[in-house]
């Protein structure tokens, strides 16, 4: 028992509990709701969806449900443990992802732990109950195996099996293959620049190439077949997603939530110049690629920290090494009287705090839902059943799918890949009252609109004699149009 209370082990357990307390998040991701519904439909029908069942604007159109297995996992967790089960399990997944970052950090535990917590804070904007967290855990496992392949090359044979699982969980499987490719090129750079000899590098390069070829070959083994080869690239090159979806846009460093990521980038850059430790070419290549990705898209910041945190930890370790910083080394702590009691008390306190934090998040899930989604307005729709079709806010589409389908089908939801750039532009034109904004209302014969009170379209429709406000609160306004009415300008625009 005393061995478990050694300072080093207690430190790791405290770190894990602290990360878990941070990672426990309520259901605030707008897409979590349609993931739940999709998991339910797949579970009950025993088949994967290949066309859109949720919207009237894309009804029956081909849909690549690339997260089908994640959706099933999310739904089954919900059925087994409710909101609490989802929050706890996804908190554990996030914690495991970050602990693998800690394992990869070189140097003394305090340094590695501090950098890991920094990485956690920088990646918070991407956390939540969402399939992405499964993908990030697999990315973290990939990095562990790839980095240890220098001394344990046989571990690479796990990567094709993980790719087979990943391609059924999420289209971000392409990240795993990209990491493989970067390690392959980076290892060749190491050999070319003399970090190791070609004789040493050649067997590993050959194995990396074979494993990558196997991973690529296994991609079609999913319900969507060969479409999964091109799907990730279609998403990355979507103009509308970068323009309209905050997570895909470049980070705005004027916002405080992105400051930790910016500081990590600056600290890593400073460390590269100041630390007496040379970063190998392979790591520099990885760092440059993920830094560029993080600057391009908020969503890629979490990928950046997975790669950058161990590099930053190594640079920080090199700066403190040999400078009399013995207090940073947990292996040199003296056997002070009562140390085991102090460690046990600290561990118990952090465990109690983590338990209380998670319990609080689970108990307040209803309040979090009401704060982030139009809960009361949806209850009004379910009870009063105003006429459809409805036009809804983009971020609310998934919530409506979970709460109102099949009574109502949505105009739009978070599956931006399904709707396409042109449709996203049309929705934005209608929402913001730009060119010919009435056309879409007439084209789809919209009878009910539910949008935030500050939406420009709400202001315009309130002034229209054919539209009537039937519900309003601080989050949402519901307006309905009289049957058989059409604005004269709309008729004129179609002539």
Explain what the structure shows.
- This protein is mostly helical.
- It has two domains: 2-30 and 64-332, no CATH class; 373-493, Rossmann fold, CATH 3.40.50.
- It has 21 helices and four strands.
- Helix 4 packs antiparallel against helix 13 (301-320).
- Residues 486-495 have low confidence and may be disordered.
- Please tally the β strands and state the result: 4
Number of helices: 21
* Secondary structure category: mainly alpha
Instruction: Determine Rg (CA atoms, Å).
Output: 26 Å
Throw out a few tags for this protein:
4-stranded mixed β-sheet, mainly alpha, globular, single chain, Rossmann fold
How is the topology of this model organized?
Elements: H1 7-23, H2 32-45, H3 68-104, H4 109-123, H5 131-148, H6 158-169, H7 173-192, H8 198-218, H9 227-236, H10 239-244, H11 259-274, H12 281-296, H13 301-320, H14 339-363, H15 365-372, H16 375-384, E1 390-392, H17 397-404, H18 416-431, H19 438-443, E2 448-451, H20 456-462, E3 467-472, E4 477-481, H21 488-493
Parallel strand pairs: 1-2
Antiparallel strand pairs: 2-4, 3-4
Helix pairs in contact: 1-3, 1-4, 1-14, 2-3, 2-17, 3-4, 3-5, 3-13, 3-14, 4-11, 4-13, 5-6, 5-7, 5-13, 6-7, 6-8, 7-8, 7-12, 11-13, 12-13
Give a summary of the structure in a few sentences.
By secondary structure, the protein is mainly alpha-helical. It has helices at 7-23, 32-45, 68-104, 109-123, 131-148, 158-169, 173-192, 198-218, 227-236, 239-244, 259-274, 281-296, 301-320, 339-363, 365-372, 375-384, 397-404, 416-431, 438-443, 456-462, 488-493, and strands at residues 390-392, 448-451, 467-472, 477-481. The protein has a four-stranded mixed beta sheet, covered by helices on one side.
């Amino acid at each position: 028992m005393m061995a478990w209370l050694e300072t080093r082990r207690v430190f790791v357990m405290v770190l894990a509990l602290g990360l878990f307390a941070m990672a426990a998040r309520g259901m605030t991701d707008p897409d979590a709701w349609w993931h739940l519904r999709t998991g339910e439909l797949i579970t009950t029908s025993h088949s994967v969806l290949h066309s859109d069942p949720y919207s009237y604007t894309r009804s029956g159109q081909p849909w690549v449900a690339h997260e089908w297995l994640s959706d099933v996992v999310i739904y089954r967790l919900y059925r087994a443990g409710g909101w609490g089960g989802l929050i706890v399990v996804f908190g554990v997944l996030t914690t495991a992802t970050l602990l693998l970052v800690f394992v990869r950090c070189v140097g003394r535990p305090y340094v590695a732990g501090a950098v890991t917590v920094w990485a956690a804070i920088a990646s918070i904007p991407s956390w939540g109950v969402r399939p992405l967290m499964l993908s990030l855990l697999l990315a973290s496992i990939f990095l562990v195996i790839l980095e240890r392949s220098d001394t344990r090359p046989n571990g690479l044979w796990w990567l094709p099996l993980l790719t087979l699982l990943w391609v059924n969980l999420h289209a971000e499987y392409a990240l795993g293959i990209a990491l493989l490719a970067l390690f392959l090129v980076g290892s060749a750079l190491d050999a070319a620049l003399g970090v190791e000899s070609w004789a040493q590098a050649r067997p590993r390069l050959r194995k990396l190439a074979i494993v990558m070829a196997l991973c690529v070959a296994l991609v079609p083994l999913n319900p969507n077949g060969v479409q999964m080869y091109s799907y990730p690239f279609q998403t990355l090159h979507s103009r509308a997603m970068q323009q309209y979806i905050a997570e895909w846009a470049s980070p705005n460093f004027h916002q405080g939530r992105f400051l930790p990521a910016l500081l990590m980038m600056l600290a890593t850059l400073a460390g590269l110049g100041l630390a007496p430790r040379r970063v190998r070419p392979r790591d520099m290549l990885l760092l440059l690629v993920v830094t560029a990705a993080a600057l391009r898209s908020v969503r890629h910041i979490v990928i950046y920290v997975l790669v950058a945190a161990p590099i930053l930890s190594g640079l920080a370790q090199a700066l403190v090494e040999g400078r009399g910083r013995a207090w940073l080394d947990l292996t040199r702590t003296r056997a002070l009287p009562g140390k085991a009691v102090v460690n046990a008390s600290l561990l118990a306190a952090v465990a109690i705090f983590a338990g209380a934090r998670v319990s609080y998040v689970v108990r307040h899930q209803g309040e979090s839902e009401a704060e982030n989604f139009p809960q009361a307005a949806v209850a009004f729709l379910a009870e009063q059943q105003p006429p459809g079709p409805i036009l809804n806010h983009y971020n609310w589409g998934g919530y409506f799918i979970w709460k109102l389908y099949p009574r109502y089908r949505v105009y739009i939801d978070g599956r931006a890949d399904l709707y396409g750039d042109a449709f996203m532009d049309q929705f934005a034109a209608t929402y913001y009252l730009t060119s010919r904004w009435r056309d879409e209302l007439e084209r789809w014969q919209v009878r009910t609109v539910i949008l935030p009170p500050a939406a420009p379209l709400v202001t315009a429709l309130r002034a229209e004699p054919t539209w009537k406000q039937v519900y309003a609160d601080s989050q949402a306004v519901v307006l309905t149009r009289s049957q058989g009415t059409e604005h004269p300008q709309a008729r004129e625009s179609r002539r």
